[in-house]
Write a structure and sequence with these properties.
alpha+beta; binds nicotinamide-adenine-dinucleotide; 3-stranded parallel sheet; Dihydrodipicolinate Reductase, domain 2
Length: about 290
């Protein structure tokens, strides 16, 4: 299709192991690319995708679609206003009681997905918290993964079903994350992004175990702890596809850029590496590099 139809832009919504080869083919074929999350299977692939888009002067956007939710845009505005002070700690996660994506066989195979809930669900949560913190540079990560339920349900299951991690940034701030496809969590599905600052906190959670969302801003006023939801959400926000098209038409950089995808991929790689070795992973300054502590 790329060779014959020469599309100006493509959306790549394929299994994770195809994101890199098909993005590379599309960019080299002259197309702008909106690639689904995760950007790639690992940061070596992601770095090559980002470099190629840059060299060929093509738009490469990663579909961190949760950034476009009105609740996240409201949180972003509150944080940028300075009302919650300096954000120094993020607590984020996505736990499912029983949510192994069993209908589609590739999701729970390492050679096609790259991992389990960490690369599938955690990638969104890490991106959101990291983005709302102002995209800090990563210093080190520690992670652990568990495989307690998946193999009992599906014989060829070979990824984690729960992952936990801790990310330290070069400026001293930090983030913790927990994700699962299967666990004894309280509701069928719970998602949260909590940003703690020196003057307050901004907290987004899903409600009733589903896909409705609430945002709460917590502050001290005259010695009282005040917590409330914004009186209204931003009226209309573009979705990620509209934003991709706008960026191409106006020759502007997309919100979740290839560089953002790469940085998030480095965190994922580090967490998996740390889980495999039992050691903290330190990041050097090279874009795709990480070394064990
Ligand atoms: N941004 C989001 O919130 C979000 C939500 C869902 C899925 N995703 C991502 O989108 C991607 C696809 O997920 P999905 O749930 O739609 O998976 P899926 O398995 O349901 O769909 C994948 C599609 O790719 C096609 N395909 C597979 N191999 C192919 C090949 N070699 N050549 C051409 N087509 C091929 C399949 O026929 C299928 O239509 C994943 O990377 C997933 O992480 C992102």
């Amino acid at each position: 299709m790329i060779d014959k139809a020469r599309p100006e832009a493509v959306i790549i919504a394929l299994p994770n192991f195809l994101h890199h080869p098909v993005t590379m083919a599309a960019l080299k074929g002259g197309a702008h690319v909106l690639c689904e999350k995760p950007m790639a299977m690992n940061c070596t692939e992601a770095a090559e995708m980002a470099d190629t888009a840059c060299c060929l002067n093509k738009t490469l956007m990663i579909n961190f679609s949760y950034r476009f939710k009105t609740t996240i845009i409201a949180m972003e505005k509150v944080i940028q206003s300075g009302q919650v002070g300096e954000i120094y700690f993020a607590n984020t996660g996505w736990l499912r009681q029983n949510g192994i994506p069993r209908g589609v066989g590739w999701f729970y195979r390492k050679n096609m997905a790259g991992g389990g809930p960490l690369i599938d669900l955690g990638v969104h949560r890490i991106d959101l918290a990291w983005y709302l913190m102002g995209r800090p540079k990563v210093e080190s990560v520690s992670g652990a993964t568990f495989q307690k339920f998946g193999p009992q349900q599906l014989p060829d299951y070979d990824v984690e079903d729960l992952a936990a991690g801790f990310v330290k940034f070069k400026d001293g701030r930090c983030m913790q994350i927990a994700v699962s496809w299967a666990s004894f969590c309280e509701t069928p599905e719970q998602m949260w992004t909590e940003l703690y600052g020196t003057d307050g906190a901004a907290i987004e959670r899903n409600t009733n175990g589903g896909y409705q969302w609430s945002v709460k801003i917590l502050k001290d006023v005259a010695g009282f702890r005040i917590g409330g939801e914004p009186s209204r959400m931003p009226d209309k926000t573009p979705n990620s596809i509209d934003h991709f098209v706008d960026c191409i038409m106006n020759n502007t950089k997309p919100g979740p850029s290839a560089e953002d995808g790469l940085e998030v991929q480095r965190i994922l790689d580090g967490l998996y590496q740390s889980a495999a070795t039992g050691k903290k992973v330190r990041f050097d300054t090279r874009p795709a590099g990480a070394t064990q502590a």
